[in-house]
Automatic annotation (TrEMBL):
Localization annotation: Mitochondrion inner membrane
GO molecular function: phosphate transmembrane transporter activity
Family, similarity comment: Belongs to the mitochondrial carrier (TC 2.A.29) family.
Protein name: Mitochondrial phosphate carrier protein
Gene Ontology CC annotation, any one: mitochondrial inner membrane
Species this chain originates from: Allomyces macrogynus (strain ATCC 38327) (Allomyces javanicus var. macrogynus)
Keywords: Membrane, Mitochondrion, Mitochondrion inner membrane, Repeat, Transmembrane, Transmembrane helix, Transport
Length: 346
C-alpha cells in the first residue's frame, strides 16, 4: 500500500543543513557520508538499514513499556468494562482483582500486549521517521521548520494507520482475555479461538474503527507534543544538544515524553473506552460497527466515556516517557541517532 523504505531512500535526494543562523532542518541522507556512526566506531548506515534500526528501537521501546504496564492496563480495562464492581478507584481495583483472582490475574494478556506492541512500535517509530523525511523533501528543507507541526502531525498519523493494521488483531485478543479470564490460557490459544469463532473481520477488526479513532489522535498528540516540548527544553539549556551528556539527553526525553503522554491520554480516552467495550463481547448479528459505536457512546454519555482516565493518565504518561527515553538510548546504541530533526534554535 505504501512504498518501501528502501525504494523511498533510493529516490530521495540528499538534504543539506539549512544555511540560516536561527533555523535547523536536518535529516539522515541516503548518502553514506551523512549517515550516523555506530557507538565506538564501525560502519555507517543509510537507507533500509537505517530505517530498520529506527523500527527496531521503536519495537523495543513500545513492547517493553506496554509489557511492564500490563497490570495497570488490566485494572484500567476492568474499571472501564465493569464500573459497578470496580468503583472505588485504581488502588482498590488492584486489591479487588488480586483478592478475587490472585496476583497472576494482573498479567492477563501479557503475551498479546508484548507481541502486538513490538510490531506496532516498529511501524510507528520507524514509519514516523520515514514519513517525516518524505514530508521534509516535499516542502523543502528551508521551509521545513515553519511547517514542522503539520509535518509532525501528518507523519505520525500515516505511521499509526499502518501500525494499527498490525496491532488490531492482537489488541482484540488481549481485551477479550482481560474481560473474559477463562477465554484462553495464552496468546496463541486466544488468537486462534477468536479467529475460529468470529473470523478475521468480526473477531479481529470489529474494533479497527475505534482503535484508529483512539490511536491516530493519540499518536499525533504524542509525537507533536513531544517534539515541541523537547524543543522548548533544549532551548532553555545553554549547552548545545550535541555537547550534552547522555544522561541529560535521556532526562529531556523522559520529561518531554511525560508531557506528551498526559496530553495524548486525555485526547484519546473516549475512544479507548469504546474500544474496550466493543471488544468485550460479540455484537448483534447484522449490526454494523458504526451502529455499535454510536449506541455505546449514547449509553455511556460524556462521563462514562472518561471512566478510568486517572489510571490511564498514570499509565500513558509513564509509558510514553519511558518509550522516548528507551527509543533514544537504543537508537544511540545502534548508531541511528541522526534522525530527522526540525527545530527552531537559538
Amino acid at each position: 500500500m505504501f512504498p518501501s523504505p528502501s525504494a523511498l531512500a533510493a529516490c530521495a535526494p540528499p538534504r543539506p543543513l539549512v544555511p540560516m543562523d536561527d533555523v535547523r532542518a536536518s535529516a539522515p541522507s541516503p548518502t553514506v557520508d551523512a549517515a550516523p556512526h555506530l557507538l565506538g566506531g564501525g560502519p555507517k548506515h543509510s537507507g533500509l538499514d537505517l530505517y530498520a534500526r529506527y523500527a527496531f528501537a521503536g519495537a523495543l521501546c513500545c513492547s517493553i513499556t506496554h509489557g511492564a504496564l500490563t497490570p495497570v492496563d488490566v485494572v484500567k480495562t476492568r474499571i472501564q468494562l465493569d464500573p459497578t464492581v470496580y468503583n472505588r478507584g485504581m488502588v482498590a481495583a488492584f486489591r479487588q482483582v488480586i483478592s478475587a483472582e490472585g496476583a497472576s490475574a494482573l498479567l492477563t494478556g501479557f503475551g498479546p500486549t508484548f507481541a502486538g506492541y513490538f510490531i506496532q512500535g516498529a511501524f510507528k517509530f520507524g514509519g514516523y521517521e520515514l514519513w517525516k523525511g518524505q514530508l521534509i523533501d516535499l516542502v523543502g528543507a528551508h521551509n521545513a521548520p515553519e511547517y514542522r507541526v503539520p509535518i509532525y502531525l501528518t507523519a505520525s498519523a500515516l505511521a499509526e494507520f499502518v501500525a494499527d493494521i498490525a496491532l488490531c488483531p492482537l489488541e482484540a485478543t488481549r481485551i477479550r482475555m482481560v474481560s473474559q479470564p477463562d477465554f484462553a490460557k495464552g496468546l496463541v490459544p486466544g488468537f486462534t479461538r477468536l479467529l475460529r469463532e468470529e473470523g478475521v473481520v468480526r473477531g479481529f477488526y470489529s474494533g479497527f474503527g475505534p482503535i484508529l479513532f483512539k490511536q491516530v489522535p493519540y499518536t499525533m498528540a504524542k509525537f507533536a507534543v513531544y517534539e515541541m516540548a523537547a524543543e522548548k527544553i533544549y532551548a532553555g539549556i545553554s549547552t548545545p544538544k550535541d555537547q550534552l551528556a547522555t544522561g541529560t539527553v535521556t532526562a529531556v526525553n523522559l520529561g518531554a515524553g511525560l508531557i506528551a503522554g498526559i496530553a495524548a491520554a486525555i485526547i484519546s480516552q473516549p475512544a479507548d473506552t469504546l474500544l474496550s467495550k466493543i471488544n468485550k463481547s460479540k455484537g448483534v448479528e447484522g449490526e454494523s460497527v458504526t451502529s455499535r459505536l454510536v449506541g455505546l457512546a449514547k449509553q455511556l454519555g460524556p462521563k462514562g466515556l472518561f471512566l478510568g482516565l486517572g489510571a490511564r493518565i498514570v499509565m500513558v504518561g509513564a509509558l510514553t516517557a519511558g518509550q522516548f527515553a528507551i527509543n533514544g538510548d537504543v537508537k544511540r546504541a545502534l548508531g541511528a541517532e541522526g534522525g530527522h530533526e526540525i527545530a527552531k534554535v537559538k
